[in-house]
Amino acid sequence: MKLCIKNGRVLDPASGFDKTACVNIEDGIIKSVGEAEAADETIDASGKLVLPGLIDLHVHFREPGREDQETIAGGCRIAAKSGYTSVVTMPNTNPPIDNQALVKFIKHEAEKSGLLNIFPAAAVSKGMKGEEISEMGELYTAGAVAFTDDGKPVSSSILMRRALEYSRMFDVPVMAHEEDHLLVDSGVINEGKVSASLGLRGIPNAAEEVMIARDVIIAGLSKGRLHVQHISSGGSVEIIRNAKKRGVNVTCETAPHYFSLTDEVVRDKLALAKMNPPLRTEDDRMKIIEGLKDGTIDAIATDHAPHLMNEKRQEIEFAPNGIIGLETAVPLMITKLVKEKGFSYNEVFAKVTCNPAKIINIKKGEIKAGYDADLVIIDPDKKVIISDDFIASNCKNTPFMGAELCGSVECTILSGRITYKA
Description:
With 422 residues, the chain is an alpha/beta fold. It is built from 15 helices and 18 strands.
């Protein structure tokens, strides 16, 4: 089977390639980029961007345990609609992904869907209890690409050290959810003017920053690969920037909501804007954008977290943390970073293609001869309105409902097969 994508603006963030060209695909592999070749099927991408298939380092598909919120098959469908061809699933399911059988189950379910490459992350600790290190070697052999107790911090410094040391054997990252529970102290939203005016307990920036500082020091000691998840604070950006300058092997991600919103939105959206870490201030938002611009922040990950609306409509103190993020990711990146802040497309999309591919050591995220034909076609100027009709997910828990943004995913291709077409 030969496929030709012609007349598109081909962007390859890994090499900096940016010109109108044709991508020629044969038997699921990129054959060449340049002049059009004879093909069984041709896609005209005139006026559109042609990019490597997007890679998300941080999603929650809820299976096993909460299939009423999301299933692996459903998550694969939503990811394909959103332009993603590869994702890393988090292990905080019920039961947690802490054994070979569950890692293999996730991979098997993804293969059945045929819509998405899923790379499971496995738990750092057995049962995600933070007490005993998981069987990392067995989990890696089963297909785990990273280790994390996401949703919980690794509070034990010695366990974090051992995990970072052990993971060096496999050259995989330990992904850290950075949160000092004692400093969180039953907090609900960011500590500041908004929490005070709403009479809600606040979560200080320090709850995140203290743990990042600790883990950066431990990473330097252990020589392991630390990946800091969903950073939200300006102070976190500075800690990681300084650590990189000192040669610490640390990478990090943020999420679209942290460069798009502030805690002010909680006044209107209430629990729909409740997440962990919480939305911070405008100063933090601008420092997150600065960190994306200067390369301190390596990746943009959605932290896609489906919750049923009846769960989110509780009083904010009792509602669960998290929002859906896959379907709004491309419009937010294009609108908030390219259109409003002047980022180039290659600058932005490096954060969801080649950079995350390097973090988890997969041969993905580039438009290059010999690579899998995982691609996405995007109309960067087409307006989208975030609505019930736009959101295909079973769960609609997003603070962006009603927003008018730019950037529409028109087609997603996995190994040369069209998995989504608008």
